[in-house]
TrEMBL record:
<feature type="domain" description="Glycine cleavage system P-protein N-terminal">
    <location>
        <begin position="19"/>
        <end position="446"/>
    </location>
</feature>
<dbReference type="InterPro" id="IPR049315">
    <property type="entry name" value="GDC-P_N"/>
</dbReference>
<feature type="coiled-coil region">
    <location>
        <begin position="626"/>
        <end position="653"/>
    </location>
</feature>
<dbReference type="InterPro" id="IPR003437">
    <property type="entry name" value="GcvP"/>
</dbReference>
<keyword id="KW-0175">Coiled coil</keyword>
<dbReference type="GO" id="GO:0004375">
    <property type="term" value="F:glycine dehydrogenase (decarboxylating) activity"/>
</dbReference>
<dbReference type="InterPro" id="IPR015422">
    <property type="entry name" value="PyrdxlP-dep_Trfase_small"/>
</dbReference>
<feature type="modified residue" description="N6-(pyridoxal phosphate)lysine">
    <location>
        <position position="709"/>
    </location>
</feature>
<dbReference type="InterPro" id="IPR049316">
    <property type="entry name" value="GDC-P_C"/>
</dbReference>
<feature type="domain" description="Glycine dehydrogenase C-terminal">
    <location>
        <begin position="782"/>
        <end position="903"/>
    </location>
</feature>
<dbReference type="InterPro" id="IPR020581">
    <property type="entry name" value="GDC_P"/>
</dbReference>
<keyword id="KW-0560">Oxidoreductase</keyword>
<comment type="function">
    <text>The glycine cleavage system catalyzes the degradation of glycine. The P protein binds the alpha-amino group of glycine through its pyridoxal phosphate cofactor; CO(2) is released and the remaining methylamine moiety is then transferred to the lipoamide cofactor of the H protein.</text>
</comment>
<protein>
    <recommendedName>
        <fullName>Glycine dehydrogenase (decarboxylating)</fullName>
        <ecNumber>1.4.4.2</ecNumber>
    </recommendedName>
</protein>
<comment type="subunit">
    <text>The glycine cleavage system is composed of four proteins: P, T, L and H.</text>
</comment>
<feature type="domain" description="Glycine cleavage system P-protein N-terminal">
    <location>
        <begin position="454"/>
        <end position="736"/>
    </location>
</feature>
<keyword id="KW-0663">Pyridoxal phosphate</keyword>
Amino acid sequence: MTANRIPLSRLERGTPFEHRHIGPDTEAQAKMLAQVGYGSLDELTDAAVPEVIKSAGALDLPEARSERDVLAELRSLADRNQVLASMIGLGYHGTFTPPVILRNVMENPAWYTAYTPYQPEISQGRLEALLNFQTVVADLTGLPTSGASLLDEGTAAAEAMSLARRVGKVKNGVFLIDADCLPQTIAVIETRAEPTGVEVVVADLSEGIPAEIAERGVFGVLLQYPGASGQVRDLRPVIEQAHELGAIVTVAADLLALTLLTPPGELGADIAVGNSQRFGVPMGFGGPHAGYMAVRDKFARSLPGRLVGVSVDADGNKAYRLALQTREQHIRREKATSNICTAQVLLAVMAGMYAVYHGPDGLAAIARRTHRYATLLAEGLRAGGVEIVHGSYFDTLTARVPGRAAEVVAAAREAGVNLRLVDADQVGIACDETTGRAELAAVWGAFGVEADVAALDTTAQDTLPEALLRTDEYLTHPVFHQHRSETAMLRYLRKLSDRDYALDRGMIPLGSCTMKLNATTEMEPVTWSEFGALHPFAPVEQAEGYLTLINELEERLAEVTGYDKVSIQPNAGSQGELAGLLAVRAYHRANGDEQRTICLIPSSAHGTNAASAVMAGMKVVVVKTADDGEVDIEDLHAKIEQHRDQLAVLMITYPSTHGVFEEHVADVCATVHDAGGQVYVDGANLNALLGLAKPGKFGGDVSHLNLHKTFCIPHGGGGPGVGPVGVRAHLAPYLPNHPLQPTAGPETGVGPISAAPWGSAGILPISWTYVRLMGAEGLRRATQVAVLGANYIAKRLEPHYPVLYTGPNGLVAHECIVDLRPLTKATGVTVDDVAKRLIDYGFHAPTMSFPVAGTLMIEPTESEDLAEIDRFCEAMIAIRGEIERVGSGEWAQGDNPLSNAPHTAAALAGEWERPYTRETAVFPAGVSAADKYWPPVRRIDGAFGDRNLVCSCPPLEDYDG
């Protein structure tokens, strides 16, 4: 029998990537469609998506390519980047990522596919890792309370400005910045200050605060330590003077320098901020990197962002959780003090583990080596007649060569080293962990100097001021002393990851969060040195491949959303919101409509919407939500009429936060436009629209996107994220720009939103690769299968749990909300009980009580196959049966498998006095003993942790090994 002939062209194409990305195959899709009641994906989405928003024609994207071909294309882009030795500094430094951390954290899906630890019982590993990070920051800065990371140094400093204004005694006055602060930090602060009416003054504070500024009142001061010029000076006099004026003092400090220098807290600082990038995190053309903030105890409860705290579980055992204001913006909305949502967890974990691996002695040794190279470099230049501006420095020199600075920088570049052109007369040179003798020789040569390292090493003296040398011990906790060998480190990382639940274990059905596949092919290029080793302020001609990738990604994001221009600078969704609202504000002001400051926001909206609006200088007016979950049209029209002349923008999420396609969205947009306002479409739910509808075409003027949702950048345990902003043409002149890279945005832009010109550029290859692998048809089918999965779950669960909201034809979008409130009223079983019981079944819970209290919002995404979706549905149905047994009185309300969940292995030891069996507790229906996930702790007492706030590694006497 002759085999069928298969054309070579078909064999060469192989399996399309979309079949790898989309979980349900054709047969599974047919079964799911039958359950939902439709014959095809097109029939389903035709019925679900309102006609008024549908896009005409296919997306104009390059044809999908194979994984092999796309990696080759990426390699060609990477090869167009020139990776020179970077001695630019300005807060970004070369670093060696220990291979054990590179392989077992950065490249490990157990770490990068985890979600924010809102379910702490199954997040103990990453919470411990973040507690390590907090301890590193607190110890090195000399301030007792540190957060679990912020977005970057510039935005951390801006958050410090807001904190100082909020908690300080001086309620007016200016925010004073020392001129020796990083220029990108100053620019970000100025962007953030202007909309809220804060006056920023930049001045030379080396001789103290000038009298004319002191007379105006100063509510906050920002100092850099060491300065951007490299100078190390004693900040105590200016800090004391600032405190006499009632100001709150922030010191932006280099963590590596702090291993040798007196910490900011000891100098008198109230707040310390900075970046942890040089602790083993590649520069990545600007990010992502974990910014940090540490504060005095009295400000701990005002700290922005996330804070990991130590609490206890139901058995009284130590357990970690997010504490205090972790989701403050969701609770306080327009009264929130920060819009921070995404952190930089994966990068904070890496930085913390870098400190764990090296320990205090190892970090100090790296710092001493770095300083020694700077000292030798300076002495060689001085011997050759070059003036070194400052006598005290850590790693950065400013060399004065009147009229020759550009010539020196060009010569160094020819020798393979990037230096910083300060001005026509001065050159900045920064040493780091990677600096070697070859770099010193190249720099000396660029200045026209000859020097001998060995000879200099016998005579050159270190230059750190004796009065500023650190004398206290730091990182004394055992965790920073026990993992010196790679074997020990490897096992520690594995131990922590085993305590967690991530996508590599099973489904994370979080509504609004889109936990889809982060494909290995998409992730691989991130660690290539051609993408990872570039400094964000390197000459643009050295980043030709990067800029091509960025431009192509921006153009493709514009195509899929229907907007005219996209900026990828915002490094989180919340920052994209802020960028979009600042563009709207600038547009109105350019038109002479400065009175347009009202932002209408539905009551169901994500809490960052309102927080971002306030930060953009707007006043939030809340629009009611109707009983069916849609915007209350009558109330919307009333609010528009009431504020017609002041209306700046309406912020809506589409599909709605309730997971439905609202049919009147185009009319809503038209009504706002008729009143002179703009429409902001929150792109959090774009996974229900790609290939089907474009917000820029059905009425949106501006949207932010979440690349860490729809476009496959992994959540990383709570970050990194990227939140590009897309706008129609009339808003394009007001997108973010950057003073250090003019090509990064329009000259008329609102200023930088992030410290780096292209934000978290280092992870953009992930989204570029996703779009390139999927093509137009692949993206459309992914959306259709995401909608199918949500409707399949809704249909399967509807007989057991009410589905709260539906849209056209009784269908949902890409997520559905099941209502537990009637069951809670009847049985006492709460949404928390169901969420924790799902852990016993081997699942991460769906989103709890958002946007409606007492509900679960479920989003399967397109990447979960039918077997896993069915396993989840069967678990939910089995839990419904357990709830019935509580309701019938068979199990007591306070003592049943739900109220006691989750059950640990330790809970099974000893006497068992529960009204249900051990098997029921830990091996409920469908759970295999061989594949069981065991949570490391029982249910955690959150209130205890908030009352007894501990936010760094517990003291030695509490250490249990």
